[in-house]
Amino acid sequence: MAPPVTIVGAGLGGLVLARVLHLHGIAATIYEAEPSPEARPQGGMLDIHEHDGQVALRAAGLTDGFRALILEGRQAHRVLAPDGRVLLDLPDDGTGARPEVQRGELRQMLLDSLPPGTVRWGHKLRDVRPDGAGMHALTFTNGATVSTTLLVGADGAWSRVRPLLSDAVPSYTGTTCVETWLFDADTRHAATSQAVGGGAMSAPVTGKAIMAHRERGDTLHAYILLNRSLDWFDAIDFSDAVMATARIAREFEEWEPALTALITESDLPPVLRPFHALPAGHRWQRVPGVTLLGDAAHLSVPNGDGANLAMLDGAELGLALVTHPDDVEEALAHYEAALFGRGQDAASVGGGFHKTLSGDDPARRLIEMFSSR
What we know:
This protein is an alpha/beta fold. The chain folds into 2 domains: 5-73 and 97-170 and 278-355, FAD/NAD(P)-binding domain, CATH 3.50.50.60; 172-277, D-Amino Acid Oxidase, Chain A, domain 2. The chain is 36% helix and 24% strand.
């Protein structure tokens, strides 16, 4: 039997790993920095793909629970011009392979599938170091300490576990996203609601875009993309929501008001999310007793596949440990061989999507991308 597994990070990947291990009788404990599951919003919609996310949920025995979370109609997608003209309108005819769910609801389903106490909330990792005899010692900011023979870093872009394996650090990609939200959109923002449609909407031009998705409860969640330096964003006071949204909206002057309302009419303060990425093809030499998954392993430009890959990483790592119960190093080597390939592919696809939005006539290129699917 594989030894107990220590997981840092209660994101989707870490939770899938713990769930797969639980199904096969292998103990796991997750240490999470957030104080509770409700400590912060868990993001917007996720399209769960047949070839990775759904494979992971099947391995976790949660396919039925996942299907109960699907929001019908959300696979629809339209591409708009800045003046509001519809350039592409793809309906959700029920045959799509990427059903949409709310990230927070998916995370809660995974949490509910684990034994009580699996996640130790309020444990922010401060330091981790080798502790002799193949052990690693973890120290948390709350003063707690843990030693483990099998450590998994599922702790995201700025992983504190990654330095045990690699000197790589994420670098800024040149694009930042500003997130906004419009509630009760059909009644309070009818023109914007009509522009977005029943699923997702993209309005890209070179160097910037307004994108949005219809969530549960008549909410429009918008993603405003701008190719600007970090210094440019640092000059904006995001603690003043009115001033910040007005400044961002100035970058979209003369755009259709139904689109710019996604910026100026936000019911919540805007949230700034710079995009960072690890070097393409990030990998490391095998280090006994420790590995990574998800963004900690292969952070790339957002391309719609990050959460799916993290869940598949978790499932594949769990199954590798189940398959090689008496040889952890063989399990980790087997897992990492496939992980590195997935990370390389994700970086390639992410870079392609990023270049599409950054190059000439991104709307046409985006339409071609959807048509090829």
